[in-house]
């Protein structure tokens, strides 16, 4: 059975029934027809195979970058199997600016709209003009506009109505020439004379100092989403915990850093088997080498139960857990 350890960044020792690669839309459709029980995979940085998967894993290797220029913007059509960070680097080198805040996020371009990847005050949806995909049921090519993608915090139509129904083949980005640099967030606000290059370098240096490199220590980035709660609920929580950090995100809602909640429950550095809650960033769970899916589930459930019991706030995993038959919820 094909080994999945090198196909997901958490690097658990799982297998699948078949492992196939596609490089264009028509071979993707043929593979989906040949293997009705399958899972589409980009670079596996948001997927944790917690046990052997009984279906076929289909790897997206659709490549290509086409660029056109209008009076006001650069327009990029990018193959879904391109690497995200490589795209950000190329864009910077070519003078197509704006995406620097999203440097060093692992994964494929095709997965970027799915959870609307975001960091340092920016989300990829800002730049997405359209997403090209194949509808699995009909085999038809469909193009969704920006609005139809329904981008939200780590969310989009691809995680809702279209979950498991489409294969994203290309993403079309628009990078306005008059784009205003975004340095509002965290360490970026300390840059005295920000340029796209200094933002890019700062993001890489801060991320490298805080987050474990999955090539050296298996992990899937933030294991949980930052919970969003309504203001009334938050006000009660703040009375009980005056030091609680938060971001007002409008619409009568407040986002709380999950890392702080987990830290308050003293999980930093805690271990279950070979899974450890990262000592400097408790939102990240790591594989110390021989972690099992059971270790991952136990640690995740313990964290969720502790946070819920202490703060009454439910945590929701940001990662996709894949079990024998498919997606698993905690
Ligand atoms: C160290 C680290 C840091 C991270 N930091 C961030 C961060 O700052 N911000 C952030 O938002 N995320 C972050 N992530 C999460 C991750 O980088 C993103 O979710 C990324 O977009 C996943 O890409 P992937 O190709 O690896 O997805 P995969 O894990 O391969 O797939 C994710 C999901 O998308 C589906 N999918 C993949 N490709 C396609 C396709 N072409 N068509 C249809 N469905 C598809 C898969 O079936 C799966 O359900 C981080 C991860 C790690 C390991």
Automatic annotation (TrEMBL):
One of its GO terms (biological process) is peptidoglycan biosynthetic process. One of its GO terms (molecular function) is FAD binding. It catalyses: UDP-N-acetyl-alpha-D-muramate + NADP(+) = UDP-N-acetyl-3-O-(1-carboxyvinyl)-alpha-D-glucosamine + NADPH + H(+). It is found in: Cytoplasm. The active site is at residues 154, 222, 318. Its cofactor is FAD. Pathway: Cell wall biogenesis; peptidoglycan biosynthesis. Keywords: Cell cycle, Cell division, Cell shape, Cell wall biogenesis/degradation, Cytoplasm, FAD, Flavoprotein, NADP, Oxidoreductase, Peptidoglycan synthesis. Residues 9-178 form the FAD-binding PCMH-type domain. InterPro entries: FAD-bd_PCMH (IPR016166), FAD-bd_PCMH-like_sf (IPR036318), FAD-bd_PCMH_sub1 (IPR016167), FAD-bd_PCMH_sub2 (IPR016169), MurB (IPR003170), MurB_C (IPR011601), MurB_C_sf (IPR036635), Oxid_FAD_bind_N (IPR006094). It comes from the Bacteria. Gene3D superfamilies: 3.30.465.10, UDP-N-acetylenolpyruvoylglucosamine reductase, C-terminal domain, Uridine Diphospho-n-acetylenolpyruvylglucosamine Reductase, domain 2. Pfam families: FAD_binding_4, MurB_C. Its EC number is 1.3.1.98. Belongs to the MurB family. PANTHER family: UDP-N-ACETYLENOLPYRUVOYLGLUCOSAMINE REDUCTASE (PTHR21071:SF4). Cell wall formation. This is UDP-N-acetylenolpyruvoylglucosamine reductase. It comes from Salinimonas iocasae. The gene is murB.
């Amino acid at each position: 059975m094909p080994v999945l350890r090198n196909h997901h960044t958490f690097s658990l020792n799982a297998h699948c029934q078949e492992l196939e690669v596609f490089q264009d839309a028509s071979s993707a459709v043929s593979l989906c027809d040949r293997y009705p029980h399958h899972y589409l995979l980009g670079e596996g940085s948001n997927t944790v195979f917690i046990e052997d998967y009984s279906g076929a894993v289909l790897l997206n290797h659709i490549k290509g970058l086409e660029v056109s220029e209008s009076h006001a913007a650069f327009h990029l059509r990018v193959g879904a199997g391109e690497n995200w960070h490589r795209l950000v680097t190329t864009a910077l080198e070519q003078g197509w600016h704006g995406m620097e805040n999203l440097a060093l996020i692992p994964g494929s371009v095709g997965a970027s709209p799915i959870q609307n990847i975001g960091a340092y005050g920016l989300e990829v949806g800002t730049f997405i003009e359209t997403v090209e995909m194949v509808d699995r049921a009909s085999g038809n090519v469909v193009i969704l506009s920006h609005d139809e993608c329904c981008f939200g915090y780590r969310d989009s139509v691809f995680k809702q109505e279209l979950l498991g129904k489409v294969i994203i083949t290309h993403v079309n980005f628009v990078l306005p020439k008059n784009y205003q640099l975004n340095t509002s967030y965290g360490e970026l606000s300390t840059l005295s004379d920000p340029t796209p290059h200094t933002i890019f370098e700062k993001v890489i240096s801060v991320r490298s100092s805080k987050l474990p490199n999955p090539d050296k220590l298996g992990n899937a980035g933030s294991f949980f989403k930052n919970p969003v709660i309504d203001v009334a609920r938050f006000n009660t929580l703040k009375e009980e915990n005056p030091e609680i950090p938060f971001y007002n995100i409008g619409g009568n809602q407040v986002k709380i850093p999950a890392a702080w909640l987990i830290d308050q429950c003293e999980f930093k550095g805690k271990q279950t088997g070979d899974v450890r809650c990262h000592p400097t960033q408790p939102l990240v769970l790591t594989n110390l080498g021989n972690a099992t899916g059971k270790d991952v589930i136990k640690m995740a459930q313990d964290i969720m139960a502790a946070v819920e019991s202490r703060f009454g706030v439910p945590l929701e995993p940001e990662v996709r857990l894949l079990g024998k038959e498919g997606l698993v919820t905690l």
